[in-house]
Design goal:
The protein has helices spanning about 1-30, 45-55, 75-85, 105-115, 180-195, 205, 230-245, 260-270, 285-295, 295-300, 335-340, 350-365, 375-380, 380-390, and strands at about 35-40, 60-65, 90-95, 120, 140-145, 150, 175-180, 215-225, 245-250, 275-280, 305-310, 320, 325-330, 345-350, 370. The longest helix is centred in the N-terminal third of the chain and has 27 residues, at about 1-30. About 40% of the residues lie in helices and about 20% in strands. The protein starts with a helix and ends in a 7-residue tail after the last helix. Strands 4-3-2-5-6-7-1-8-14-13-12-9-10-11-15 form a 15-stranded mixed β-sheet, with helices on both faces.
């Protein structure tokens, strides 16, 4: 009897995963790939050593796409590792957003270029294409030898070092991916490289004939670009909220959803889905954006959505977990900038084992968070209400 019950649950889970996979493939028009291995990396103490190990182990190619290559010793460590590999004959390309990486020291740029690193800036603000200055690449992607890739929310700067132990060290999540899904990360780099007017590489010289299947994860890689219409990033986030039946858990650094996404969250809560949203608290780095989130709390709380305020440090992760079966981790926030203005990247993983790891991290984060109590929020002070009203009309511009 016990064996039969287990088989029944397994079949049910398999059927549910297939339903979710087909739903996401149909809504997005992006086929998922099988045979991937996905490792969850939490905070700089896990993310940076893994990335540096991959860079130092490279045999032929390294592609690094970064919104922010910033400040601190960790930047020099990356610059040294990239330069060393370039001098050893590895083809190294680095693409940096011109706004996000504006604080990178010129001496570090010059040193990498002198070592043979092909370093380019994405849409320099000095360009005459002024209409593009608000459209940035917010992607964080590293691909080594076209066989291992990294993506998530982590920027390479001193704030992301450590283990989120204090306000100077931020909380974030990255994924390491091996297998066929790495091709999607290669595409995320190459499309932005082409946007920077750099030539696409020679196919026969750059890529393996096949991507080896190395694990059990089914993965979609979703790229979002700037535009006036409904983006693939908006599509994947909306699809996840729509297909959810039991539970949705969201971690978002910058949460300023428009009316469409507020309604999707409200609809999920009202149809009985357990919806939790974990947001930055007292250490939020952008109070204006935080106010935009707070302006939506009443509507969300009334629908049964639970909202948490993370306390120890800035939480910068961008994660959506659905029904214990699907995880979406990447660079996109629940705001207009991610939906319409920026180039973003999301890795959708259909694997209960990976989701279980991220669920455990969510549980641990919630233990260090304060719940927004609906009754207390309804009695919030007048200055807070006024600030929300001031921000509300500008929410669509964030």
């Amino acid at each position: 009897m016990a064996t039969t019950a287990r088989r029944g649950r397994s079949t049910s889970r398999s059927d549910e995963l297939h339903r979710l996979r087909r739903g996401l493939e149909s809504l997005l028009g992006i086929p998922a790939t099988e045979g991937n291995r996905v490792d969850v990396l939490r905070n700089g103490d896990e993310v940076f050593p893994a990335m540096l190990e991959a860079i130092r182990s490279a045999h032929s190619t390294i592609d690094l796409l970064a919104f922010q290559l910033g400040t601190g010793d960790i930047v020099q460590e990356f610059a040294d590792a990239l330069s060393e590999q370039a001098r050893a004959g590895v083809r190294v390309r680095v693409l940096l957003d011109a706004v996000g990486s504006r604080w990178l020291a010129r001496a570090q740029v010059a040193s990498m270029r002198a070592a043979g690193v092909d370093l380019e800036y994405f849409r320099p603000v000095s360009s005459l294409r002024v209409w593009e200055h608000d459209n940035r690449t917010h992607r964080k992607v590293l691909v080594v030898d076209s066989s291992v890739g990294f993506a998530g929310g982590v920027n390479t700067s001193k704030e992301w070092t450590g283990d989120a132990q204090d306000p100077d060290h931020w909380r974030d999540t990255h994924l390491r991916v091996r297998g066929p899904a790495v091709d999607g990360l290669v595409a995320a780099f190459s499309t932005d490289w082409a946007d920077a007017n750099r030539p696409i590489c020679e196919l026969d010289a750059e890529f393996p004939p096949d991507q080896e299947q190395v694990g059990d994860s089914v993965v979609q890689v979703v790229r979002g670009s700037d535009g006036s219409g409904w983006s693939d990033i908006a599509n994947v986030l909306a699809a996840l909220l729509t297909v959810a039946k039991r539970r949705v858990r969201i971690t978002s650094a910058y949460f300023a959803p428009d009316e469409t996404f507020v309604n999707l969250l409200v609809d999920a809560g009202r149809r009985g889905v357990d919806v939790e949203v974990l947001l930055p608290g007292t250490n939020a780095d952008q109070r204006f954006v935080q106010l935009a989130a707070e302006a939506q709390f009443s509507k969300l709380l009334d629908a049964g959505v639970r909202v948490w305020s993370y306390q120890p440090t800035m939480i910068h992760a961008k994660i959506v977990l659905v029904d214990d079966l699907v995880a979406c981790v990447g660079s996109a926030n629940f705001d207009r900038r991610s939906m319409k203005l920026n180039h973003e990247i999301e890795v959708v993983v259909l694997d209960p084992a990976v989701v279980a790891v991220l669920d455990g991290h969510f549980d641990e984060d919630v233990e260090q968070a304060v719940p927004i109590d609906p009754e207390r929020w309804a009695r919030r002070a007048l200055p807070q209400r006024v600030a929300e009203l001031v921000v509300r009309p500008l929410r669509g511009r964030l």
